[in-house]
């Protein structure tokens, strides 16, 4: 007691000298700033590590080692090959002969056999036959073939496979690398931008070079359409009712609590719900974007409802009073005044909800989208919804689970594409917000 | 003691526009308005004065059923406008509010153009058959709001871009655009500077020609300047209701006298 009164009674120093208390307070503030700065630096560090590792591992997926061979198939060769029992073998022989002659033209003499070509390029005969059967008018004219090199040869160019690490196997022999080097010197083998990765379809487990994410992008697109068309109107209608019209009683309180809880339910729970309800009970097709979209709608709804309610709440009550004061009905007040002001927030919430749904994998595991090999584009809009397909995150998961190192690289590449989509969506959200935000 | 109420604004005895009898208002368990009975006359400015929380704004909001929007608010008793009970089950509050306009404490223009601010009410009530008629209504309302000359060249500019006093006059113009019969004003000048206040007060005096105006104010000078009748509220009771000149010069109740001389409040 005496101490306190002594202290307060102590004579004050001048303003130019900092007293002990102020010093202490300033030090505390400095410390707090340092903590904050440290936290930000740590966060940024991890972000940079993440970005660098994604880009380093994923960028190789966008290039592909190809062998470019130009040759002319005469009508006689075509007829002769088609008349044989092993048709693709015949085409392969024609291809090998063409490759051999091109090497000789450039003055290179490397010995190789059909088996080596198979190890380097896979089954070439089938690809060539398919092409000429589809385009019979190209018979007799020079055609340039770009054939994807096998995963290990691709890896050799990307530094994933080295001469020291190669163990002779049915996939690659050390001697094959001599052929590869020779082809490289001749300019026949080269690295090209892999458009097929962006636009192409998935392949089986044996052909990482030809795998693309394009079909999965379409699958994701149809899923997002379902999510948008269902969750936006339902979510907005529910929020408007709850926020503007519903009486405040125990029942609406219960609904509110449940919506908040739903937002925190793990996504795999929605997946098993979708499996039980949509597939087993309603017999909707498995692996279909429609079912994926329905499941993701359930997941996105709470996000949209919460963000919509928040933006409705943010509209100042004075605007509602003004509208009611001039004799607008409740609904006119909401639709003429409140909703337009809340629209930017609602749009942002919706896009962020969609972005979240776009990257969601767990529920897709359970409805069969993971593991489905999306080999072809859907034929039309309807089949886009109901035919089995994959989705971007499901495709990435499928690739990551495959053994070949080439697929591992594709998985990282797929992540880059997925992140690009997410960044674009978030950017759109920011732009919409900036554009439509009104001040009052 | 204050600016002496001008004798020229002597109350004119006219018809009763609003008759309230034994009005009780509860916010959940809180009894906010107790036994208020008041007869508000047509073509007169009636001021409600009283300390904060005395219920004057609450009572004002009963007159156009604005309290309906508050879930926990209950109103008992009878309020009649032109002899019709406004709390009758058949009365649609939306129709009532077109007849009883309201101006709020804080200027609250819609974040739309000046034109749309005024045109909104007439539009939703179907008062104009075509654009020309609507233009006319907008001009008339803005003239009555004494803001026409300032905004006639920029009707498409946002209403929120005006100054505070202009915004409030815009809100008054918006309220009169729907041709109400009663105009309720809830502390319309509390957010305005003295010049804007003077403009709005002048406007209120003009509006008296056509409407029954009820104004809630914290400023006793303002009540004395603009009103002909004054009601003094205290703790939910209507303490005294009389001609403004009488309230300010010769109040009957001791509480009224204490309040206007600044001893309670």
Q: What is the secondary structure topology, with strand pairs?
A:
The complex is a heterodimer of chains A (about 450) and B (about 260).
Chain A lengths: L1 H8 L10 H39 L4 E10 L2 H9 L3 H19 L8 H8 L2 H11 L7 E7 L2 H8 L15 H12 L3 E5 L1 H5 L14 H32 L4 H14 L3 H15 L7 H26 L2 H9 L4 H29 L3 H5 L14 H6 L5 H10 L3 H32 L4
Antiparallel strand pairs in A: 1-2, 1-3
Chain B lengths: L15 E12 L2 E12 L3 E5 L6 H7 L10 E9 L2 E2 L7 H7 E4 L10 H11 L6 H14 L3 H4 L12 H14 L4 E5 L7 H14 L4 E5 L3 H7 L2 E6 L2 E7 H6 L4 H7 L5
Parallel strand pairs in B: 3-8, 3-9, 6-7, 7-8
Antiparallel strand pairs in B: 1-2, 1-4, 4-5, 9-10
Helix pairs in contact in B: 3-4, 3-6, 4-6, 6-7
Describe this structure in words.
The complex is a heterodimer of chains A (440) and B (265). Chain A has 440 residues and is mainly alpha-helical. Chain A folds into 2 domains: 62-193, no CATH class; 214-436, MetI-like (MetI-like fold, Orthogonal Bundle). Chain A is built from 19 helices and 3 strands. Chain A has a 3-stranded antiparallel sheet with strand order 2-1-3. In chain A, α3 (75-83) runs antiparallel to α4 (87-105). The radius of gyration of chain A is 32 Å and the shape is extended. Chain B is of the alpha/beta class. Chain B has a single domain, classed as 3-Layer(aba) Sandwich (Rossmann fold), CATH 3.40.50.300. In chain B, the strands form 2 sheets. A 6-stranded mixed sheet of chain B has the order 6-7-8-3-9-10, sandwiched between helices. In chain B, strands 2-1-4-5 form a 4-stranded antiparallel sheet, covered by helices on one side. The longest helix of chain B is centred in the middle third of the chain and has 14 residues, at 131-144. The model of chain B is unreliable at 4-11 (pLDDT under 50). Classes of the chains: A mainly alpha (440), B alpha/beta (265). The A-B interface holds A 247-248, 316, 318-329, 332, 336-337, 341, 438-440 and B 64, 66, 69, 71, 94-95, 97-98, 101-104, 106, 108-111, 120-121, 124-125, 160, 171, 174-175, 177-178.
């Amino acid at each position: 007691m005496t101490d306190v009164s002594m202290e307060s009674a102590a004579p004050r120093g001048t303003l130019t000298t900092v007293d002990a208390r102020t010093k202490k307070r300033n030090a505390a503030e400095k410390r707090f700033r340092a903590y904050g700065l440290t936290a930000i630096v740590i966060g940024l560090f991890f972000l940079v590590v993440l970005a660098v590792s994604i880009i380093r591992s994923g960028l190789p997926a966008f290039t592909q080692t190809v062998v470019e061979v130009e040759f002319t198939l005469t009508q006689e060769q075509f007829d002769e090959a088609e008349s044989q029992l092993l048709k693709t073998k015949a085409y392969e022989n024609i291809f090998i002969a063409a490759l051999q002659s091109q090497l000789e033209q450039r003055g290179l003499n490397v010995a190789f056999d059909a088996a080596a070509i198979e190890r380097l390029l896979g089954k070439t005969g089938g690809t060539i036959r398919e092409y000429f059967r589809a385009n019979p008018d190209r018979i007799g004219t020079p055609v340039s073939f770009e054939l994807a090199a096998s995963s290990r040869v691709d890896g050799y160019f990307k530094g994933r496979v080295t001469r020291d690490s190669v163990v002779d196997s049915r996939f690659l022999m050390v001697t094959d690398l001599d052929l590869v080097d020779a082809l490289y010197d001749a300019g026949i083998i080269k690295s090209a931008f892999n458009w097929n990765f962006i636009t192409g379809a998935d392949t089986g487990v044996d052909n990482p070079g030809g795998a693309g994410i394009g079909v999965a992008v379409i699958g994701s697109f149809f899923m997002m359409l379902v999510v948008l068309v269902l969750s936006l109107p339902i979510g907005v209608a529910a929020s408007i009712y709850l926020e503007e019209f519903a009486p405040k009683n125990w029942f609406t309180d219960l609904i509110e609590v449940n919506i908040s809880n739903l937002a925190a339910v793990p996504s795999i729970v929605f997946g098993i719900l979708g499996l039980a309800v949509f597939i087993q009970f309603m017999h909707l097709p498995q692996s279909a974007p429609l079912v994926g979209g329905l499941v993701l709608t359930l997941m996105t709804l709470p996000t949209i409802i919460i963000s919509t309610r928040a933006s409705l709440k943010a509209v100042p009550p004075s605007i509602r009073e003004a509208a009611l004061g001039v004799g607008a009905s409740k609904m006119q007040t909401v639709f003429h005044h409140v909703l337009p002001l809340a629209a930017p927030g609602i749009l942002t919430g919706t896009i962020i909800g969609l972005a979240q749904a776009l990257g969601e994998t767990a529920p897709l595991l359970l409805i069969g989208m993971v593991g489905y090999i999306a080999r072809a584009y859907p034929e039309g809009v309807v089949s886009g919804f109901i035919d089995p397909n994959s989705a971007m995150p499901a495709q990435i998961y499928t690739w990551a689970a495959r053994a070949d190192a080439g697929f591992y690289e594709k998985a990282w590449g797929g992540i880059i594409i997925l992140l690009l989509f997410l960044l674009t969506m978030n950017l759109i959200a920011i732009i919409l917000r900036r554009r439509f935000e009104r001040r009052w | 003691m204050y600016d002496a109420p001008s004798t020229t604004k002597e109350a004119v005895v006219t018809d009763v526009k609003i008759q309230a009898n034994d009005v009780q208002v509860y916010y959940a368990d809180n009894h906010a308005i107790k036994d208020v009975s008041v007869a508000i006359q047509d073509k007169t400015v009636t001021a409600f004065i009283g300390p904060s929380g005395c219920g004057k704004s609450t009572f004002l909001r009963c007159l156009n059923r604005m309290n309906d929007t508050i879930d926990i608010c209950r109103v008992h008793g009878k309020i009649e406008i032109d002899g019709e009970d406004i709390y009758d089950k058949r009365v649609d509050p939306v129709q009532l509010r077109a007849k009883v306009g309201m101006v709020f404490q804080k200027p609250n223009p819609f974040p739309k153009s000046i034109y749309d601010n005024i045109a909104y009410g007439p539009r939703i009530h179907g008062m104009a058959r075509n654009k020309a008629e609507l233009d006319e209504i907008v001009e008339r309302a803005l003239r009555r709001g004494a803001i026409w000359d300032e905004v006639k060249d920029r009707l498409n500019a946002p209403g929120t871009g005006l100054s505070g006093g202009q915004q409030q006059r815009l809100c008054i113009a918006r309220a009169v655009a729907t041709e109400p019969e009663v105009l309720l004003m809830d502390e319309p000048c509390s957010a305005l500077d003295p010049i804007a206040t003077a403009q709005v007060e002048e406007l209120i005096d003009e509006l008296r020609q056509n409407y029954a105006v009820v104004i809630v104010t914290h400023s006793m000078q303002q009540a004395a300047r603009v009103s002909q009748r004054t009601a003094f509220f205290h703790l939910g009771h209507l303490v005294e209701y009389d001609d403004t000149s009488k309230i300010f010069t010769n109040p009957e109740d001791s509480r009224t006298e204490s309040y206007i001389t600044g001893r309670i409040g």
